[in-house]
Amino acid sequence: MSNQHQHDFLRNTLAAQTLNRRDFIYGLGASLGSVALAGLSAQGAPPSLNSGPLSPNAPHLLPKAKNCIFLMMEGGPSHIDTFDPKPDLAKLHLKRFQRSGATKSKMESGERYYVQSPWEFNQIGQSGAWMSSQWRHLPGVADDICFYRGAQAESVNHPTALFQMNTGNRFVGDPAIGSWVTYGLGSENQDLPGYIVLPEVSYPQGGSPNWGNGYLPAHYQGTPLRPTGTPILDLKPPAGIVPEHQRKNLDLLSSLNHKHLEKHPEQDELAARMESYELAFRMQMSVPGILDIDQENQKTQELYGIGDDTTDAFGRKCLLARRLVENGVRFIQLYSGGWDSHDFIKKAHGSRIQSVDKPIAGLIADLKARGMLDDTLIVWCGEFGRSPDNGKREGQDSYGRDHNAKAMTMWFAGGGVNAGHTIGATDELGAEAVDVIHPIRDVHVTLLNLLGLDDNKLTYFHGGRYKQLSQFGGKVISELIA
Fold first, then answer.
1. Do residues 116 and 89 touch, judged by C-beta distance below 8 A?
2. How many CB atoms lie within 10 A of CB 87?
3. Does the pLDDT at position 21 exceed 70?
4. What does the alpha-carbon distance between residue 56 and residue 223 come to, in Å, rounded to a whole number?
5. In the chain, pLDDT over 90 holds for what percent of residues?
6. Considering 61, 348, 431, 453, which has the largest number of Cβ atoms within 10 A of its Cβ?
7. What is the pTM of this model?
8. pLDDT band at 41 (very low <50, low <70, confident <90, very high)
9. How far is Cα 68 from Cα 450, in angstroms, rounded to an integer?
């Protein structure tokens, strides 16, 4: 057994002693106590701030990025209508297309028709990146982006494709990429969770396992913040309770619990819960200020589209993501739903693009202005792309597109990526990737690499073998790295 595996085995064996609490933790909501408990649940004796489970760890490699903001466009955005123009479709628009029976799925049964994009495309910036005319703000940061057209997924079903993009496995139960990152690197702020998720009111298909810890200890799971109302429940103490009162109460409770723990040292659940009270107390001090984006000046809020009904919701998420990165949170994932446009793609995709365009452009520009873009990796993607054809719909502009796992566009900014370049290509109709083709596991391995992690060394002993994000290994996509 190698030294690396010996180290992993000892680390994982100790952590596994407390995994019987994981199922309980997994179902907890985003209350202050549950967030704190989930952040410390797999520990034995209460750690100091310098030795907790999320304490910063040395990377395997020289990192190009310290943090990651992952922008998930749930539903599958169409590459053909966003960043990968296919002019040949104009000649074939609404002409009949029939797949062979051997390759035809249920979704593809019946008559089908080619569909052109409803928008024109323009080449933007010095890089000449292609963007549809619906993107009105992103062109301003086009030269900071690396577009990748060669990724291929393995599923055309939303839940399994989301699981694969988020966890590397099409089936529920594996750790999310954010969990792997915090497991490998820890967090720079011990008063906050290391992995935070900003979902919509309706969770994505497949639900919270998209950011679950899987077989890793529970403190590596993503912590979702509520999109409306108070982001974390019970964040404020009851009326009339001041920090001094809380401190005295915690000190008394701690002394009683320590006496009990001395008599029952095997009760690691008690030890974890004791420290969770301390983390919750620290979060009450630090979280309210971080989550209060009204502290930002009006110019900054306008940069993100806050105050405009179309962009306010996603703009707040993007600005909060910047504030979280600024305060040492390692991995933040933002969700934008509604990209599953089987019909009326002009209206549906048009609305979705408008809702995220200004906030995302504002995020990139703001990070760059603050000198943070080089250290922050931004990822934009959905779970798969969309097809160049669809079943014909009645009425003007009512056509849409179906799911397509063989062709998609994702892009990256900051964090050492090859900005100002478009990598890979799809065929003339956008049906399949044909250049620099890689599966999702290679994308994951590349993201880990940019953050200073080696997928072959980032392992966890479970089920009788060492497991890793890529499942059985992958390849770094060198073309994406500057």
1. yes
2. 11
3. no
4. 18
5. 65
6. 453
7. 0.84
8. very low
9. 10
